[in-house]
Write a structure and sequence with these properties.
Number of domains: 1
Shape: elongated
Largest sheet: none
Number of strands: 0
Helix content: over 70%
Number of helices: 4
Distance between the termini: 14 Å
Strand content: under 5%
Structural class: mainly alpha
């Protein structure tokens, strides 16, 4: 197991649960339904990739190679760009701060990092 990445997954998992709870309880009252849907997408994809990060960190013990390290890094960067930008767009909906709309283009960049992470995971297991 790659201990540092597994610990990161655990911390991000706890954060994801907290973000989900905040969305389910507090956020409903302050943002429109469309913004809540965007927020829920952020939480959902973050949670999926927390599990991908944890799995990849465990697979590293059996298949220790750079591709699995790259996969972990891609999952973390993907969460920051994809979910992070969607969280910021939700803040925009709640506050009306217009310049926050400029983070929108970061969402697909995060998606590309997710895809790269999955491909690196496949390649890393194949190499191992």
């Amino acid at each position: 197991m790659h201990k540092r990445f597994f610990i990161t997954a655990a911390i991000l998992g706890a954060l994801t649960v907290a973000m989900g709870a905040f969305g389910a309880h507090a956020l409903k009252a302050i943002v429109p339904a469309e913004a809540l849907t965007i927020y829920e997408t952020a939480v959902k994809y973050q949670f999926y990739h927390v599990f991908a990060l944890a799995l990849t960190s465990m697979l590293y013990e059996k298949f220790p190679n750079q591709s699995l390290i790259n996969a972990c890094a891609c999952f973390i960067v993907g969460m920051a760009f994809f979910s992070g930008s969607l969280y910021i767009l939700t803040i925009k909906a709640a506050t009306g701060i217009e310049w926050l709309k400029y983070v929108g283009p970061f969402t697909p960049v995060g998606g590309l990092f997710f895809i790269a992470g999955w491909l690196q995971l496949a390649w890393g297991v194949k190499k191992g």
